[in-house]
Design a protein that fits this description.
Layout lengths: L4 H18 L11 H8 L3 H13 L3 E3 L5 E3 L2 H4 L7 E7 L6 H16 L3 E7 L6 H8 L5 E6 L3 H8 L5 E4 L13 E5 L1 H14 L5 E5 L4 H16 L9 E3 L5 H14 L5 E4 L2 H13 L6 E6 L10 E4 L2 H17 L7 E4 L4
Parallel strand pairs: 3-4, 3-5, 5-6, 6-7, 7-13, 8-9, 8-10, 10-11, 11-12
Antiparallel strand pairs: 1-2
Helix pairs in contact: 1-3, 2-3, 5-12, 8-9, 10-11
């Protein structure tokens, strides 16, 4: 223990909170807001945060962004606090793109914070699942997180190993199997609706949707777009829905450039994802069309400097929800599969 008065104070606060946790004074499993605690202990926020960091390092609490600060308990997080080992599976992808590397990094940090660890397994096809199956069946993996371009074949293969499975994201195509899975999904219908609605509120009448391949997430984006233009009283024009067969900037640039040449009076664009918005932005810059409004959604990778409006999906929030749901699954506190939807934020 340091001899300084400040250090003694934040250590004293941490010990007091730990005693109160042991006594069950926080039955909700959540600590009061920092502002309240700072006033209660009559200290500034900096001193309080030092106490919170000390408790977090000692695995007493963990933070979940805007949702607050929660108490680490065995009945809440199952065996995660006992050095469990987890696998992160990236399915159906050729490369570890920034989107998935950010997701993996946040998940790793969150698991380490509550006592676990995570290994990475790329599985392009079912035939690539051998190493993960060997580790899992040999009792080296206690739970599996899976993301990427997931199909029912890969999911069913992993489910057959009878270990806790959590899906992060959407399956490629809609299937009844989804209702049997624990999932963390970005609410793509909601964020596409909000992006399109913003453009309509700014006076846009000819809103182009630059969408990706016919996967579930992009199907939801189309529904959100349709809902917003219908509410705004804008007539639907199928030419304004651009479907890119590949989720790449190059494909989006080629498709949008062709549409802009045919209809230079387009006044706005909604691009459904990091890759697609990069391609659209490139064409708008080349054509010197700063008059065309651009709305987009990002996983926190692309810069928003050239956008009129951009929503972001928080990798931190996604990881926090994923770890919490896996903990509930390990603790067997729920009987039915659960789907947690992550909303986008400005």
């Amino acid at each position: 223990m340091s001899g300084s008065k400040e250090n003694f104070r934040y250590e004293q606060i941490a010990r007091t909170l730990q005693r109160n946790i042991k006594r069950g004074l926080f039955p909700s499993g959540k600590l009061p807001p920092e502002r309240f605690l700072a006033e209660y202990f009559d200290v500034n926020r900096l001193t309080l945060r030092k106490a919170m960091k000390l408790m977090e390092a000692d695995k007493w609490i963990f933070r979940m962004g805007r949702r607050g600060t929660f108490i680490v308990r065995g009945d809440q997080f199952g065996g995660i606090t006992k050095r469990r080992v987890f696998a992160y599976v990236l399915a159906g992808e050729d490369e570890f793109s920034p989107r998935y590397s950010n997701s993996f990094a946040e998940l790793s940090r969150k698991l380490v914070a509550v006592g676990g660890s995570v290994l990475f397994y790329p599985i392009k096809d079912i035939e690539d699942s051998g190493p993960l199956e060997e580790a899992t069946m040999g009792h080296g993996v206690d739970g599996i997180f899976i993301s990427g371009r997931m199909n029912t074949g890969i999911i069913e293969k992993i489910r057959s190993w009878n270990v806790p499975l959590l899906v992060i994201g959407h399956l490629m195509y809609r299937d009844p199997l989804e209702e049997e899975l624990d999932r963390i999904v970005a609410d793509s219908l909601d964020y596409s609706y909000r992006c399109t609605k913003m453009l309509a509120e700014q006076g846009a009448k000819r809103i182009v949707l630059v969408n990706g391949p016919s996967r579930q997430v992009f199907s939801d984006c189309t529904q959100g777009y349709m809902k917003a233009i219908n509410e705004a009283g804008i007539n639907f024009d199928e030419r304004n829905v651009i479907v890119c067969p590949e989720d790449t900037a190059l494909c989006a640039a080629e498709k949008f450039s062709a549409r802009l040449e045919k209809d230079p009076d387009i006044d706005s664009v909604y691009a459904a994802g990091d890759n697609l918005q990069a391609g659209v932005r490139q064409i708008l810059w080349k054509a010197k069309r700063s008059d065309i409004m651009l709305a987009s959604v990002s996983y926190g990778i692309s810069p928003a400097a050239d956008d009129n409006f951009q929503l972001k999906i928080s990798a931190f929030e996604t990881a926090s929800e994923a770890v919490a749901l896996m903990g509930k699954k390990l603790a067997n506190l729920k009987k039915t599969p659960e789907c947690v939807k992550i909303s986008a934020h400005l």
